[in-house]
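Protocol step 4 of 6: structure prediction from sequence.
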Amino acid sequence: MVETKKMIKIIINDQELSVPEGITILEAAHQVGVKIPTLCHLDLHDLKMVNQTASCRVCMVEAPGRNSLVPACVTKVSEGMEVNTHTTRAITARRMAVELLLSNHPNECFTCPKNLQCELQALAAELGVREIRWEGERMDYPKDLTSDAIVKDANKCIYCRRCETACNIVQTCGILSGIGRGFDVFVGPFANIPMVESSCTYCGQCVAVCPTAALTEVNHTAKVWEALNDPDKHVIVQTAPAIRVAIGELFDMEPGTIVTGKLVTSLKRMGFDAVFDTDFGADLTIMEEASELIYRIKNNKTLPILTSCCPAWVKFIEHQFPELLEIPSTCKSPHIMFGTIVKTFYAKKHGLDPDNIVVVSIMPCIAKKAEAKRPELTKDAHNNVDIVVTTRELGAMIKEAGIDFDKLPDSEYDKPLGETTGASVIFGTTGGVIEAAIRTTYEWLTGEELVDVEFTQLRGMEGVREAVVNIGGKELKIGIAHGLGNARILLEGIREGTSHYDAIEIMACPGGCVGGGGQPYHHGNEEIVKKRQEAIYQEDRNKKIRKSHENAEVLELYRQYLGEPYGKLAHELLHTHYEERERI
């Protein structure tokens, strides 16, 4: 039975309203269209990402009868409460809070990675802050440039602690915490060790919620331009499935707008020698992963099998659950698989020296930058993928190239290696990888045609989900988690023997890749992530072929080059291993 909350009467700016008992002033104000500015506040209930530290003091309001102003983000309403949100006293306090933050903030907006996307910058403009009245000493820490994925600039930290919430509460990685006291306080890894020495998974959720540029991705756009302008380089680009439903937001399109054709056109106009879809690599991944699952089932090998497409999740299990390293699939991720095929099969077919091929991956994920540098993912001393840029970085490059994105005609991906299926598209959302694998596993185990390819029991936005799939009379128990905190719940159950599954999919980011750390900032609007997910499923339905093992170009690749799925050469090129990493 759903509990009905008691309703109480309050007054906000002379407007009387009835609200549920226990909500905050900020939540009540939203009901009557009153905007109270916030900075440290973050409330994504569906994604379990709530930050209510009230540390910035930007949302201060007057509540007659109280001696001091109160923070609207954490102050609960009470029967008969009167609130005035925009009195002179409240506005003055907000301005002062912002001015004090700016007095200890680098004055480099023009060159800042988050220029025009910085919430502190936007708030200063909104509150009419035109000067900094308190000039003086500022924090002066060196940038942490040690990792291949994330840049930490403590001088831009405003101690909102959003990143701490994302890292410790949502993702349960426990990397970030407050360091120092008073004027010099900031958030960073334990004892301010370099990011690369910490147990950071590089999931990028801290970057996604940081209101300033205290945490940003390592920018690789200059490397891409350099490669494109080198006449001796053959530059190939691949785009992940989640890009096509998100990049339009950077050009004022509605969240979830599918822009696949425009994306291809923009990349061709930028000068790439070939434009491919990572979905091809996803179909290849399913050929290998479904084969591995069937092999384990038929030979009584270790179950559950854990999908291993997400590099942040792989690094999470290496640091946090090394005793379970035998259960993840050994398959490389789709973009690494694709890069491997480019540096081998494609290079030979086109008479190209792998040393002169540059593979660029456009990813929704910051962790892919670090993944591409992992030594076990190289082939004959060649990086499978040379450069990784995020959705945000690509958007900036398209604008830099003077391309009017929303007016572009549609183009097709290049061939060969260009055919893709609906199964590969759904890799972009939570539940999609395991659903794609089940579509193929069903037909390979039963020998029967799968007519209804949509396993809706595997879909949804619940953090931890379970489902049973009947395949030829055999029931497979499936576990799904998105967000590393939810992954921890599943893995602890396996470790303790209280949970039993045949297959598990884990994605590090809430919502899966559609909510990746490199996607356009959603600024606390979780509906945006849901719209991207809906678009992914629509793209799947738009495809003529919806099963990976029916991708004719993938099958031809096996016939011409790889041999049998899960065979000797496929193992050599498309599979990898994991290692225990120190937990700090």
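Step 5 (inspection) to follow. The chain has a mean pLDDT of 94.
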